[in-house]
Every structure is written in C-alpha cells, then in structure tokens.
Amino acid sequence: MLKKILIANRGEIAVRIMRAAREMGIPTVSVYSEADREALHVRLATEAVLLGPAPANESYLVISKLIDAAKKTGCDSVHPGYGFLAENAEFAQAVQDAKLTFIGPQPRAIRALGNKLGARSMMSKANVPTVPGGEVKSGSIDDFKSLATKIGYPIIVKAAAGGGGKGMRIVTDEVQLQEAVEAAQREAKSSFGDATVYLEKYLSHPRHIEVQVIADSFGHTIHLFERECSIQRRHQKIIEETPSLALTPELRTKMGDAAVAAAKAASYISAGTVEFLYDSGNFYFLEVNTRIQVEHPITEMVTGIDLVKEQIRIASGEQLSFSQADVKMRGHATECRIYAEDPATGFLPSPGKILHLKEPVGGNVRVDSGVYSGFDVPIYYDPILSKVITLGRTRDESIDRMTLALKDYRIVGIKNNVRFLIDCLNHPEYRAGNLFTGFIDKNLPEWAESETDKELDAAYAGAALAMSGRQVSSTDALPDLENSPWQALGSWEL
Ligand code: ADP
Q1: 452 closest CA partner among 463, 460, 444
Q2: H or E, element range at 384
Q3: Using one digit for the tens of pLDDT, what is the confidence trace for 3-15?
Q4: Residue 335's closest CA among 229, 207, 441, 236?
Q5: Closest by CA position to 386, among listed 401, 398, 371
Q6: Which of 291, 313, 366, 419 is labelled catalytic?
Q7: How confident is residue 135, by pLDDT bands cut at 50, 70 and 90?
Q8: Crossing angle for the helix pair 89-97 and 63-72, nearest 10 degrees?
Q9: Can you name the CATH fold of 207-460?
Q10: CB under 8 A, 24+ apart: contacts of 182-188
Q11: Residue 311's Cα: distance from chain center in Å?
Q12: Of 150-154, 162-166, 408-412, which range is least confident?
C-alpha cells in the first residue's frame, strides 16, 4: 500500500482525497499558494508545503515545485485531483521519473486520450460510435466548408486540445464558418498552445450522459454505470444525477459496454470517465476524462464504492476487489455544485469573504466542502465552494431531499448559486425529467433573485458583520430570518 500521498490540488477535492487517505491510515501532505494560507485543505492538514505566489502558474501548476514538495516530505505518491495538472501527461511522467507513484492513469493513456481528435479515431477503431465529424488536414477553409456541408449544419467547431468548454463555436450556416474556425483556432492556440480545431455535427437537443469506468493493472476493466450531466451553464455542468431517466436497461448495458471498450482501447488504468452525447436513442462518444470527476460522489452514493480509495488501491498495485456483476445501483443520487458566482449576471465569479456559513446535514445528505465561515474565497481559482449530494429511494425523493438541504444552506457575504439551483431542480421540466444540455438557456433564461431574497441576504450580512467582533464559526447561530424547513427542529441552529 502507498505510504504517504502528496495532494497536488486545493479546495473540496483536496479535502475529499485527504478524507479517503485518512480512512485508509495513509498520511497526506497538502500544498498551497500564498492566497491559500488559510484554506481548509491547509487547516485540516498535518503537513503542508507552500508552493509560491497565488497565480496557479506560479504555484499549483509548477511541476518541479510539486515534485520537490513530495520528495522533501517523504511522499511516495501524488494524487492530482481534478483540474490543474490532473490531465497533464508531462506531470504524470515527471512524477514517475521522480520514482513516485502517480495516482491516476499512465502518462501514455493521458496523452492518447488528451487529444480529442486522437481519442475520436481511437474510439472509431474500437467500434465506439462518435459524433459525425472530423478534421481538415489541409487547414484550407474550402476544405472546412466542404466537410461542414457533408456533415450538415448546424456544426460545432472544437479545439483538439480543448477542455473546460473553451475553444468551441457553434455555426449554423456557411457564412459564419470561416470566422468561427479562425476564432476557435486563436482561442485554442492561446488557451492550449495548439491551434488544431475540428468539426462535429452540433446536436441540438442532446443529453450529456457519461459512464464511470475503473480498471486495475491486471486487465480488469469495469464500469460503474452512468451519470446524467445535462444541466450545464456555459457548457459546464452544475447538476448531475444517476441513474439517467433516458436509459433503458438495454441502453445502459450498451453504453456501459462501449465505455469499457473505450477504456480498454486506451489500455486505461485507474478511475476514468467516458463522456457521451445522447440523442433520440443514439449515443456518441465525446471524450474521456482521465481523472476523478467533480461529480464522482453520485456514483459512490448509488454503488457504495469509494472511487478515491479505489484509485489509491489500484495505484498501490492491488487488484479490483469486485467484478462487474458485484456492482449494483441502489436508489437515486443528485449532486449540486455550489459556486461563488452570480447566476443573475451570466454566472460571473463572485469571490470574497464568507461572513457566515452553515452547511446542511442529514441522513443521505453529503457535503464535500472546501470552505468555512470566515474564509476569503480567492479570485485566482475555479470558484467552486462545495458540492451537495443527496440519495433517495426515488428521483423525487432525492430532489426533495436536495431542495431541503439547499434551503438549509446558508452562505452569507458572497453571491452564490444556491437559490438558482433550488429553482432549477423544482422547475416542472426538471421534475418531469425533460433534460438536455440547453435546459438552463431554455427554461431559466432571465433568472433573477427576488427582492425579498436580496433583502434577506443583506439582513444576514448585517447580522454576521455585527457578530464579527468575536470569532465567527460554523456553529455560531445567526438569527433565523426566513422560514427554514428545519426551523421547527431548533437544535439545528446551535
Ligand atoms: P470540454 O472538454 O471543453 O468540456 P466537451 O467536448 O466535453 O468539452 O463538451 C462539453 C459540452 O459541450 C457538452 O456536454 C455539450 O453540452 C456541448 N457539446 C460538445 N459537443 C457537442 C456537439 N457535437 N453537439 C452538441 N453539444 C455539444
């Protein structure tokens, strides 16, 4: 078993990895930037190493500093989390070259799957269906035009090295094509250092459904069913659930098999996710994410399998302790991502000091959090604060439980998306299960906070500031100014 893990990340995922390692009796080392001296993943750490200044390219993204930190603290392994260097083959290779274990796939698999074009052709060879489309080797705009005509408009221009929703352009007719290709090339070059773009058929009403896979180094590759991730803003997920209402048992098996075939085609080891777009009974390969996903907890809730612990066991050279037949789904899980952002202004990040925080608790309510009362959320990184995950016997129960949990979540002092999430979950179309990737644009286009809620926020902020002469902690009570569903329980307040 691994002896000591350096966690090359921050925020909720760093805390999540720390928790798994602690349960396994494995010590961990946190790393931090100057902006994160007071961060939760540092406060909870028994050992932490300062990497450097706040900008990620001077701290969390500096490979040599991370390797040095691991060496100096006697770590034998590195967990990259998600984001930052998690899908950087050079980092995985540097970790291995330093005689440390990378808790994730082999650099070769990360490299092969990191390029979306390369991954597409690998999947076609493995008979996994891909979205109609392809690249234009000549780079000539006339060839782009004839490929687009062949695919049929609308099309989407995508960066081969893309990620995080960057470098994508939707084009509805030939007139826009040249400008879109050139803009996508420029964005791809500046964001990823590779200007290669390609075309795909733009599916106008798809669901995003992905399959969790896990593989050990003994050739066992299995899947842990799907996650429905269609609720997105700016092509990025904010609510996920499992199982997906769209899948019949036959389709579930077919997609699971396709995901396993995809992982095998890349000789994949560790936990990974095969993403598909689903439209009218057909599914198409999108990409493989070669890391733990933000939304992994919903899979854990329904299967009872701890994916981070499995990653650690696999990296330690152990065999998977369960087979495909052992993996069963129980109930329905929902995850909401809690962001410091303002849904009323196009989801603009809204960092700042959390004056007061009260996180929800309860049976089958899980909160993976990276913040606390009094923490100043830095502007430098992804504004995710936490994730709330609920399990119910049915989809409705899971959503009802989530709604109550979110109503009981109090984040005072910074703008956040909690109320937006409540409205999204309780939209009749969401309840009916009519999900697709354009759901938010269609159903909640002009969402704004009510005047009452704005006043409530100001009152909470005032109350929190009045208390700030003394230590504010999450167990401090703020006066209950609204009809919290838990008010009747009283004891939840102190
Ligand atoms: P990234 O790696 O940048 O996140 P993805 O390829 O995973 O990009 O796509 C992210 C999201 O963009 C998808 O979940 C979907 O909403 C949208 N998208 C991507 N490709 C298509 C397509 N061909 N048709 C329709 N929507 C797409």
Answers
A1: 460
A2: strand 384-392
A3: 999 999 999 999 9
A4: 229
A5: 371
A6: 291
A7: very high
A8: 30
A9: D-amino Acid Aminotransferase; Chain A, domain 1 (3.30.470)
A10: 184/157, 184/158, 184/159, 187/159, 188/159, 188/160, 188/161, 188/162
A11: 17
A12: 162-166
pLDDT of residue 480: 56
**173-206, pLDDT tens digit by residue?**
999 999 999 999 999 999 888 999 999 999 989 9
Site residues for ligand 1, CB cut-off 6 Å = 131, 156, 162-166, 200-203, 206, 208, 232, 235, 275, 277, 286-287, 437
- Report the nearest-CA residue for atom 2 of ligand 1: 163
Interacting residues of 185 by C-beta distance below 8 A, sequence separation 6+ = 195, 197
The answer as to CATH 3.30.1490.20 being correct for domain 132-201 is yes
Residue 143 tokens read as 């060839």
State how far the Cα of 321 lies from the Cα of 419, in Å rounded to an integer: 41
Separation between Cα atoms, residue 494 and residue 491, nearest integer Å: 6
The pLDDT value recorded for residue 493 is 31
Distance from residue 208's CA to the centre of ligand 1 (Å):
8
Q: Which residues pair with 357 in a beta bridge?
A: 411
Measure 49 CA to ligand 1 centroid, in angstroms.
36
The CA distance from 490 to 494, in Å, is 8
User: What CATH number does the domain located at 5-103 have?
Assistant: 3.40.50.20
Q: Which residue has the higher pLDDT, 116 or 471?
A: 116
Same fold, 5-103 and 207-460: no
How remote is the CA of residue 275 from the centroid of ligand 1, in Å? 9
| Among candidate residues 169, 164, 57, 160, the one with its CA nearest the CA of residue 114 | 160
Distances (CA, A) of 279 to 209, 325, 352, 444: 10, 28, 40, 22
Q: Under 8 Å CB-to-CB from 177, ≥6 apart: which residues? A: 141, 144, 145, 148, 155, 171
Domain locations in the chain as residue ranges: 5-103, 132-201, 207-460
Annotated catalytic, 291?
yes
Q: If you measure from the C-alpha of residue 167 to the centroid of ligand 1, how many angstroms do you get, rounded to a whole number?
A: 11
Q: Whose Cα sits closest to atom 12 in ligand 1?
A: 235
Residue 292 has what DSSP assignment? -
* Cβ atoms < 10 Å from Cβ of 251: 17
